[in-house]
Amino acid sequence: MTVYPPKTGNTGAAVIVFPGGGYQILAMDLEGTEVCDWLTARGITCVLLKYRVPGSSKFPKSGAYPQAPQALDDAQRTISLTRRHAAEWHIDPRKIGVIGFSAGGHLVAATSVHFDKRIYPRMDATDDVSCRPDFAIAIYPGHLSSRENSLALQQDVKSHLSRQTPPTFLLQNEDDDVDGVQQVLAYYAGLKQAGVPVEMHLYAQGGHAFGLRRTKLPVTAWPELVEKWMLTIGVLHQQ
Fold first, then answer.
1. How far apart are CA 184 and CA 204, in angstroms?
2. What is the CA radius of gyration of the chain?
3. H or E element: which one contains 114?
4. Which residues of 58-91 are buried (b: 16+ CB within 10 A; e: fewer)?
5. Which of 65, 207, 210, 236 minimizes the number of CB atoms within 10 Å of its CB?
6. DSSP 3-65
7. Is residue 141 classed exposed, middle or buried when 0-12, 13-18 and 19+ CB atoms within 10 A define those classes?
8. Cut 0.70: pTM above it
9. Around 102, how many Cα atoms within 13 Å sit in the side-chain half-sphere?
10. pLDDT at 79 (0 to 100)
11. CA–CA dist 206, 10 (Å, integer)
């Protein structure tokens, strides 16, 4: 984990960044450092997580949790470490969120529902600190529907959704041919059924894995939508 302090007036908010890569690789620039550049310029502390990818040669058992636990192990631990160091890093421990892209978007959902119990044995006092995100942002998430072209939510996520799942922002393009719009629709429906505050934006065009790199398409303005949403949930305040 790499901590990036705010470049301008500190808002007290922090965001842990989960890059995508299909649980095979990590897009550390497109969906990592470039995201930190955006958020730190808005007064938000960023923690960029280089989580273990289960599909790598070192961890040959591929797939998302629960088939492979390594990424969620790392995400839970990182949220607790960030909260434990909140005073040192000038963070409000009640304003620690997560943002993820593609597979990292699935990791956002996993951390949003798996926070009442560690999926790994306690290591030290850090694991006594809550690993629940205070807010969650999933950008073109994957691995959320139970099967291809289905709107049924993946069972591990569905069975752990509750009103304690944090407020969530979802973004997806209808022409995404990698994960498909059914992923985000399945999760949106599950969040609504659980009574979780959720905001979703669907765009006709834009594909997959675009990050923050500007295009001529309307979806390219999504960072501004996230900033406005963080204002509405009280993470940021109008200056």
1. 14
2. 16
3. none
4. eeeeeebbeebbbbbbbbbbbbbbbbbbbeeeeb
5. 207
6. EE--SSS--S-EEEEE--STTT---TIIIIIHHHHHHHTTT-EEEE--PPPTTSSSS---SST
7. buried
8. yes
9. 23
10. 98
11. 32
List the pLDDT tens digit at each of the 239 positions of the chain: 999 999 989 999 999 999 999 999 999 999 999 999 999 999 999 999 999 987 655 555 556 888 889 999 999 999 999 999 999 999 999 999 999 999 999 999 999 999 999 999 999 999 999 999 999 999 999 999 988 778 899 999 999 999 999 999 999 999 998 878 999 999 999 999 999 999 999 999 999 999 999 999 999 999 999 999 999 999 999 86
Instruction: Enter the tokens of residue 160.
Output: 């752990």
**Residue 198 phi, psi (nearest 5):** -145, 140
Give the residue carrying structure tokens 């990791």: 107
Q: How far is CA 198 from the centre of its chain?
A: 14
Joined tokens for residue 122: 């306690």
Tokens at residue 138, please?
Answer: 């999933």
Q: Of 186, 70, 165, which Cα lies nearest the Cα of 111? A: 165
Tokens representing 50 are 């280089």
CA distance linking residue 213 with residue 31, whole number of Å: 10
Cα–Cα dist 51/21, whole Å: 11
Contact assessment for residue 76 and residue 118, using Cβ atoms and an 8 Å cutoff:
yes
